[in-house]
Amino acid sequence: METTTTESGQARPKFLQVMCILSFVGIGFVYLFSAIGINKTFLQSEQDKASERDMTVQKVIQMNPEADEGAILEALSEGEKYEKPNWFIGVACNILTLIGVIMMWQMKKTGFYLYTAGELVSYLLTILFCGMDGMKAGIHAASIWGSFAENMAIAVFTIVVVFDIVFIVLYAMNLKHMK
Length: 179
Hints:
mainly alpha
């Protein structure tokens, strides 16, 4: 297995290096989307949110004249209810994963445990603070656009969970190289 040498003189396997770089990129995207989400979650006025909801309802009804306007508004409002707690949970847990990846880059075994905690605790905190409805709010909101959008939301959520598990397992395979 190819290795590179760290500042402390310890050999870092190329596979671990690639995993860490992929994690840095992924965490960067999460923070980018979180920064974009600040506007809608915290800075947008209630009037602007209501106007955006109304435009969305009109677009959905235009696409599907048989759509129930009340159900659409309910799904959008339900999703908005969970925006703030989900944003805070996501950012806090991603700080933990970032610290974990930095520590694994430095070949510290503790980083694996922080990374794993950051990945898994985000799901647990969402369920704890928002319940399963908070976990499913995005899927429910996507459902107003039809079954294809709902299925895509389910697929994306599933892919994210699978990636989290795969990365935890792949990092665990590198524990033997860390101190």
